[in-house]
Amino acid sequence: MQNFLEKLDAIVWGPPLIILLVGTGIFLTFKLKFLQVTRLKKAVCLIFQKDNDEKSGKGDVSSFGALCTALSATIGTGNIVGVATAIKAGGPGALFWMWVAAFFGMATKYAEGVLAIKYREFDSKGEACGGPMYYIQNGMGNKWLAKIFALFGVLVALFGIGTFAQVKSISEAAKTSLNIPIIVTAVIVTVIVALVTLGGIKRISKVAESIVPLMAGLYIVGVVIVILFNLGNVPSAVKLIIESAFNPESVFGAGAGIGIIVVMQKGISRGVFSNEAGLGSAPIAAAAAKTNSPAKQGLISMTGTFFDTIIICTMTGIVIVLTGMYSSNLDGALLTTAAFSKGFPIAILGKYIVNIGLIFFAFTTILGWNYYGEKCVLYLLGEKAVKPFKYFYIFLVAVGAFLSLDTIFIAADIVNGLMAIPNLIAIIALRKVVFEETEKYFEEIDNKEVSSDLEVLEV
């Protein structure tokens, strides 16, 4: 089974999908005039800004809450386990290609956020329903492609990112750091997931707003400590990452079987697993934001990729490379744990930072993907199917701790790739809508700034 999945994974994540994924980001980057650089400061400010738009806007949660919900789904095993598996399979150079995918992915994530608000709907309860299935249907007028996306979305939630990969990582982390038996962890996680997810988007958002910023902050502090105590190794680590990204044979030798295509494939696919740019998941959460401005939510959504990959994944990768643990026989969470233990001044603290961080990151990812899967099921089968989906999702969380990690990540890669295809087609088809909304928003912003300057001069 694993051999078959590996062959299928190589086909799905072959050159066509990589070109489509990165190519879409490159195209949008140039057409949007490098918005992820020129407007990043504005985007970060908007996260914490409470204005009239948020007070009057339709939606279920604040823009910050929507971002935290999206981040809860992206900041998970991909940032700790995914980075480790990418570096193990593709060498340190895989981290460079994660950066490339993330940089251009920020433009893609911006477009997703714009379209999510532009084409969202509201159900009979008044709750927002949005995401690729709605902008494919309402923007492109293609219901079949929308259904295909929603179907793949359900598969990713149930058998990809949402359940197995997360709970397996939680159970291993709990066993490694706290010596808790896997079955005990599985029971505890299942019960808590059930209590939170059955409460809907508002409860998920509140939990995400509390956990995500706190754990991300603690993890970043831990990484900074490792870097400070190994500062002399940082330049050589960065050099190794860049060199092996373009010429892996010179670093590992031709006999290692790691060519540039392998490095690119592992870096980009694991990058997408982590930040989900182009995958189409984040706009489902973005659609719930209380705002009337598609471009504003696009900017806020864009920061998710920046925080997820450019910051957190980079920190994990740097620690693995600068401590030299990338060349060990370890993989996954064990590799990241060993790297932190070696680099941290007090080894046991490094171990706890990784494993406790992993537990909370993976837990919030389970919550976020429950919401994504729920909205996809709602689109496909209606409200009557939502509760059965939730119960089945909770069941899969319960059994996920007992499956093979290698098989889980390969299966997740496959369904991720399939989910991305209809979403990327829609973004390209609706590119003019994205450009028009962007131009309109920044014209309004620039006019307001000019008016404010004139008022100051008059005074």
Q: Can you put this structure into words, describing what you see?
A:
The model has no long low-confidence stretch (mean pLDDT 82). The radius of gyration is 21 Å and the shape is globular. The chain has 23 helices and 2 strands. β1 and β2 form a beta hairpin. Helix content is 80%, strand content 1%. It has a two-stranded antiparallel sheet with strand order 1-2. It has a single domain, classed as Up-down Bundle (Amino acid/polyamine transporter I). The longest helix has 35 residues.
**Oligomeric nature of the chains:** single chain
Low-confidence segments: none
Which fold name is given in CATH as the topology?
A: Amino acid/polyamine transporter I
Spatial strand sequence of the major β-sheet:
1-2
Count of helical segments? 23
Instruction: Summarize the amount of helix as a percent range.
Output: over 70%
Strand content: under 5%
Number of strands: 2
Silhouette = globular
Number of domains: 1
Ends distance: 74 Å
- The CATH class label is Mainly Alpha
Q: Rounded to an integer, what's the Rg over CA atoms?
A: 21 Å
Quick rundown:
With 459 residues, this protein is an all-alpha fold.
List the helices and strands and how they pair.
Layout: H1 2-12, H2 15-31, H3 35-38, H4 40-47, H5 52-56, H6 63-74, H7 77-90, H8 93-118, E1 121-122, E2 128-129, H9 132-140, H10 143-159, H11 164-178, H12 182-197, H13 200-229, H14 234-246, H15 248-252, H16 260-275, H17 282-286, H18 294-322, H19 332-343, H20 347-381, H21 386-400, H22 405-429, H23 431-458
Antiparallel strand pairs: 1-2
